[in-house]
């Protein structure tokens, strides 16, 4: 008997489209091409010096040279408890916290802990590219619920109810959203939470962009607004986006104690403890001032307004104004079927390739996040590069006929 070299479950996983675009852009830049990259979902700011200095001191302390508890340093768990109360008004204790190797491990372990083979997970689309892969790895079935640009990419309770079946066990909820930057109002969050609670569903809510809110957007943590669902709710978060610490790889999940215990058991075999130096840095970040965070948010807000304005000047492009995170999600449906430099534009994936090849600008196509017909651009890059990159896109797409 001949066995396949790669297991069917792992072989079915698609590469992260956002990381692939970022890697290609960096490779082209390394080769001397003047590529502007809008692909990566990470702040362009360095981690604040005072956080780095804590890590430097921690690296010299022998206590950090040893194994520590798989679920996280007690000091970091307590910092997460305090930070969650401060920022969300959510009262938890340390037994409800698991520190993970970045937000992605938290996402995977959340699904792995509560999803069984054949369970359906309602997945509002556009969605972050990692969600459906983690659902499938856990044996679940992602059920996409599409909200397009006409509704600011925000799903309604009615849409969720139409997608619900007797197999629907979990709702994935993300606000502010990656990839769209859309933010649900407190009233919408409460309505969705109450709907999930009525039907006995679990909710996994991703709050990684909680501090990046603009205009009239307000913070809204689902288990705070709907306390009755707390026993069936897992909150995901981390230091990556808020403190410009994407490379430090510190995330966490908050949930019912039995779920956290199960996920901790899984992590004890998969990776054991998160890097101790990074954990010490995260303690400093969470216990410290949010002043640097506010300065970064101001810069993102300024760039957001410039990018939205410039994208909406392009014929055939419609870009709703995002109220959170650091992404614009532009509809390019008006360009499909047109001809650009000898090619008929048939999909956003093809258009993204054209933009990279012809304008030397890297964007992520909508196919990475759901349906074709969209481009995601991160505005977490310098102001000058942002204007240069969007100007190149404007110039190129003006040729579409």
Describe the structure in your own words:
The chain is of the alpha/beta class and 401 residues long. It has 2 domains: 8-47 and 292-397, Alpha-Beta Complex (Aspartate Aminotransferase, domain 1); 49-287, Aspartate Aminotransferase, domain 2 (3-Layer(aba) Sandwich). Helices cover 41% and strands 14% of the residues. The protein has helices at residues 8-11, 17-30, 49-59, 74-88, 102-114, 130-137, 157-163, 186-198, 222-225, 257-270, 276-287, 291-311, 348-359, 383-397, and strands at residues 36-37, 97-100, 120-125, 141-146, 168-174, 202-206, 233-238, 251-254, 327-331, 339-340, 343-344, 361-362, 364-365, 374-378. Helix 6 (130-137) links the parallel strand 3 and strand 4. Helix 3 packs antiparallel against helix 11, helix 5 (102-114) packs across helix 10 (257-270) and helix 12 runs parallel beside helix 14 (383-397). The model has no long low-confidence stretch (mean pLDDT 96).
Write a concise keyword list for the protein shown above:
401 residues, alpha/beta, Aspartate Aminotransferase, domain 1, Aspartate Aminotransferase, domain 2, 2 domains, seven-stranded mixed β-sheet, three-stranded antiparallel β-sheet, 14 helices, 14 strands, 41% helix
């Amino acid at each position: 008997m001949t066995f396949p070299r790669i297991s069917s479950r792992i072989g079915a996983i698609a590469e992260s489209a956002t990381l692939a675009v970022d890697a290609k852009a960096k490779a082209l830049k390394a080769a001397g091409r003047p590529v502007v990259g809008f692909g990566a979902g990470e702040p362009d700011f360095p981690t604040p010096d005072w956080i780095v200095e804590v890590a430097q001191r921690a690296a010299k302390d022998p206590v950090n040279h040893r194994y520590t508890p798989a679920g996280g340093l007690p000091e970091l768990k307590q910092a997460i408890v305090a930070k969650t109360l401060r920022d969300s008004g959510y009262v938890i204790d340390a037994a409800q916290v698991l520190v993970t190797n970045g937000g992605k491990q938290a996402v995977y372990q959340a699904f792995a802990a509560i999803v069984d083979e054949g369970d359906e997970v309602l997945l509002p689309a556009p969605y972050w590219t990692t969600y459906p892969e983690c659902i499938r790895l856990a044996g679940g079935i992602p059920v996409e619920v599409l909200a397009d640009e006409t509704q600011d990419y925000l799903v309604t309770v009615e849409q969720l109810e139409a997608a619900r079946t007797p197999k629907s066990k979990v709702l994935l909820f993300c606000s502010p959203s990656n990839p769209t930057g859309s933010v649900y109002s407190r009233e919408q969050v409460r309505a969705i939470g109450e709907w999930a609670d009525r039907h006995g569903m679990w909710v996994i809510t991703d709050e990684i962009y909680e501090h990046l809110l603009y205009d009239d957007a307000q913070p809204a943590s689902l288990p705070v607004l709907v306390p009755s669902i707390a026993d069936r709710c897992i909150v995901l978060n981390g230091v990556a986006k808020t403190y410009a610490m994407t490379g430090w790889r510190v995330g966490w999940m908050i949930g019912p104690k039995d779920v956290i215990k199960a996920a901790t058991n899984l992590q004890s075999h998969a990776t054991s403890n998160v890097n101790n130096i990074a954990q010490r840095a995260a303690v400093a970040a969470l216990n410290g001032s949010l002043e640097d965070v506010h300065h970064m948010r101001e810069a993102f807000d300024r760039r957001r307004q410039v990018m939205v304005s410039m994208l909406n000047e392009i014929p055939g492009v419609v870009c709703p104004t995002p109220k959170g995170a650091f992404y614009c999600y532009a509809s390019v449906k008006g360009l499909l079927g047109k001809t650009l430099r000898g090619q008929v534009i048939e999909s956003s994936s093809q258009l993204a390739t054209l933009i990279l090849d012809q304008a030397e600008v890297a964007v992520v196509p909508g196919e990475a996040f759901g349906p074709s017909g969209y481009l995601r651009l991160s505005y977490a890059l310098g102001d000058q590069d942002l204007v240069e990159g969007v100007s190149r896109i404007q110039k190129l797409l003006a040729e579409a006929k």
